[in-house]
Fold:
Amino acid sequence: MDLALWGNNGGLSWLRALMADPDLLIFDEPCAGLDLTGRELFLKTLETFQNKYDKAFVYVTHQIEEIVPAITHVAILKDGEMVFAGPKDQVITEEGLSNLYGLPIKNHLGIWAPMGDCQIAVV
Structure:
């Protein structure tokens, strides 16, 4: 199996790896260090690419908002152990995320955030 690994140096140069036509692309926190514009450009490019070429990829992130529609299955790790895995709509749920983080998590208008007595600041 041919693999292409892209780390957290961001940008769009990962497209170069496609020249080798790998069987699997691995993105290891590719948006780390990118500003909001760069992150959104990367995610939109990834989504467009996936819709056109349907190439298998693994996407590693700590940011739930980076889970684009092209990602169909999710595995969640906690303390190095896989605690949930399966189809995205069965894993990324209010109950599952609340259990994972130990606080009430709700999806409001497509944004996952702590709710209730948790204090969050929006700037």
Observations:
- The helical segments are 36-53, 88-91, 94-101.
- The CA atoms of residues 86 and 94 lie 15 Å apart.
